Amino acid sequence: MYDRILTDFPRLPGDRSDSERIQRAIDETPNGILAIPKGDYRIADPLFIRNRCSLDMHPAARLLADREMDFVLTYDGNGDFHELTLYNPDGSVYDNLGLFLRGGDIDGKGLASCLLLANAHHYTLTGVTLHNGRKYGLCVGGDVGGRLYELVATNVYCKCNMSGLKGNTGIYTNECDGHFTDCFVIDYTVGIRLAAGANRLTRCHNWGGTVPPAGKSVREWSEFYGRNKKIFNAGGYGEELEREILSFGVPEMLRDSVSFWIESGANVLDGCFADTAVVGYLVQGARNVITNSGFYNNRLMGLRGTTAIRNESEDLVVSGCIFQNATGTDAVYEGREDAVTWIGTKR
What is the CATH number of the domain that holds 148? Predict the structure, then answer.
């Protein structure tokens, strides 16, 4: 079900990309659903949703940044989301809690961050792919102001498949009360960064290593890794192979990498997996809980000096986790022992 479809909005004379027709379609679908079919759409000017339009995108609909900009797409429900109750111009109560962005692929192509969400009482993000964000894949809140609480983000897939983006973040939020479930971040330097409290992460998985080391091509790195994987599986890993791996270099996005950066307090991570990063869980805020989660370092990636949990807080709880040195982890825990409570955790 949709109210408008992009095919009804062709390019017009003077349009330099697909930005103009997509923006016209959004603007003519207030509080409605706009369908975007399969296809590649060049975005030369940033897109903005300020009228509570929801997007239903085909999984193979790609919004491709065509020049430098802050974000390819911004959803901003406007400053009225400071208030507890929203009203229509006629004074009647407005309470649409079904707003969403579903499907599609937003590719910053290293020129732009992908998606900014700001100002909503309840919002659902599902089945979205966010490629090659210059600074962010997904940014929740940012510096727009206002509030976005009750974000439900499910099956959000952030991935970089190009070089030159070291230092970026897959999912960043400085808003509270979000629920992130089954979200995957691949080859962003920081996987998920929580700069606000009371968020819930469930079965989120961060891993990296597909972007090659500096000076190596994708093919060179892929073939080198594939060869070593066969040797490893055959039980032939030894000192000679270790020296060769270390001399080849560390994949770009793994340098200074952090899987989960928890700056704020009262967040809960349940069933999450930090897979190959310098630091699995960097904890700085108070009263956070990491439960039923794990860390793994794939030594074939050449990353050494890894730490599962680096705790800079006063009162972290770690429950039901498994951190084992056999998985290539160099240190399970860094921080004050009196600042962490271990419950049923093997290390």
Answer: 2.160.20.10
